[in-house]
Specification:
4 domains; 0% helix; single chain; four-stranded mixed β-sheet; five-stranded antiparallel β-sheet; mainly beta
Length: 321
């Protein structure tokens, strides 16, 4: 008979384990809330909570593999992660504790090099945001001044007709018209009346709200600690075959030098990159310079920090090819 392994668990809503309840790396589950907890230590014990997401959107998983040599400790991740919780390092099928490695940019370095022939897998999760168009309920009033069978454009109040086909009501002098018999409304901006409206008639159009997904362009965020002042250190990249351009919000901080925030537009033509930086502000002096390049099919945003130990945080919105 197979052995069933059960983690520590609690079925009471809102119940959260304390650091004394768990050993380092031990997992606990709240079966009512659907939350998972682990204990970590980054100088002091704390509980990390993993909660189910309820936001609009989805996640993508980037995966790469390697084989241990017994001496290699640093490996390149398939994607610059948003944070350490977005990374899973797996050796011989076992997920490694986050205290056994460090991450800088897209490089993961184990404290102890994996043994020779170890099977290593890296997984980086990237969240995908969903753009949504919202259209509220709207009423349009048209006072007819000349015989017509069409309604479009601005109404008496200067509102331009906009509706979702199948979600519109039309009234003529207070009498509700029948969709398909008394009028047709198929393109979202134009309504055709079967019988002409005459001078003095009042046509009222009610458009009902909608919510629709229009695209799934990726929104991502990353945090990178640059420990040296080496030129052109990679802080983010995206595949040129998938995305044409990106907008970045870049925030840099340093323990004694202050803060620096700037925005960047980045685009490529399949061979070259084009970058524009604007809206730059800082507290004392500039902490970095930014540029871009095209390498191995990826568009890269690279940074040259003024000081060592500078933290770079980025939010990126990409537009598909």
């Amino acid at each position: 008979m197979a052995t069933v392994l059960r983690h520590k668990r609690n079925s009471s809503t809102g119940s959260t384990p304390t650091t004394s309840d768990l050993a380092l790396g031990e997992i606990a589950i709240n079966t009512y809330d659907g939350k998972l907890f682990i204990k970590k230590n980054d100088g002091s014990d704390s509980i990390v909570t993993f909660s189910p997401s309820t936001s609009a959107g989805s996640s993508s998983m980037f995966v790469s593999g390697a084989t241990g040599t017994g001496s290699q400790a640093a490996f390149t991740l398939p994607k610059i992660p948003a944070n350490e919780q977005s990374v899973f390092a797996i050796i011989n099928g076992l997920v490694q504790d986050i205290d056994t490695y460090s991450i800088s940019g897209n490089t993961l370095t184990f404290t102890t090099a994996p043994a020779s022939a170890d099977n290593i897998e890296f997984r980086v999760r990237e969240d995908v945001a969903t753009d949504v168009i919202l259209q509220s309920h709207q009423r349009y009033i048209y006072t007819i001044t000349t015989t017509t069978t069409s309604l479009s454009g601005n109404d008496d109040n200067g509102l331009s007709l906009l509706y979702t086909p199948g979600k519109v009501h039309v009234f003529q002098n207070g009498v509700k018209l029948i969709d398909g018999a008394d009028f047709t409304a198929t393109n979202g901006t134009y309504i055709a009346l079967t019988t002409s409206a005459e001078n003095g008639d009042v046509i009222e159009v009610e458009s009902f709200g909608r919510a629709s997904i229009v695209n799934n362009d990726v929104f991502s965020s990353t945090s990178t600690s640059l420990t040296t002042t080496s030129a052109n250190q990679v802080v983010d990249y995206f595949p040129a075959a998938t995305y044409r351009s990106a907008e970045y919000l870049v925030s840099a901080s340093h323990g004694s030098a202050g803060y620096h925030t700037t925005k960047v537009l980045l685009m490529h033509d399949g061979t070259n990159t084009y970058i524009s930086e604007y809206g730059t502000i800082y507290t004392n002096a500039s902490l970095l310079s930014l540029s871009s390049d095209f390498t191995s099919g990826n568009v890269r945003l690279v940074c040259t920090p003024v000081n060592t130990n500078t933290t770079i945080k980025i939010q990126r919105q990409t537009v598909a090819v």
